[in-house]
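F.,

This is the one I mentioned.
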């Protein structure tokens, strides 16, 4: 028996800098998880993933990550994805500092 589809976002790493990015509904790659398009249909999710994988000069390693609707947009549901939203964890720098007020 197959599992029912749960909401997802498309995530990848920006090819040049390695930053974690999220595909938005208007086909931009955003550093901010809550700007991602929340996908609630499996067929639409597969189409969005194909679109992401075609952006070979922009991103690498695109996949669908579980998410849920939050008050400000999609939120990660798994600790790994929550961790990826914060960037490197060795000390507060880069994304951790830049996105503090987002």
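My design for it:
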């Amino acid at each position: 028996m197959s599992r029912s589809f749960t909401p997802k976002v498309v995530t990848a790493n920006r090819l040049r800098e390695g930053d974690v990015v999220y595909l938005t509904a208007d086909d931009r790659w955003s550093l901010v998880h809550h700007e991602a398009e929340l996908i609630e249909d499996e067929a639409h999710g597969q189409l969005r993933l194909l679109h992401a994988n075609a952006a070979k000069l922009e991103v690498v390693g695109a996949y669908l990550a579980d998410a849920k609707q939050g008050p400000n947009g999609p939120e990660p549901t798994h600790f790994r994805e929550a961790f990826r939203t914060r960037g490197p964890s060795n000390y507060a720098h880069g994304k951790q500092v830049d996105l503090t007020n987002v």
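Residues 8-98 form one domain.

Talk soon.
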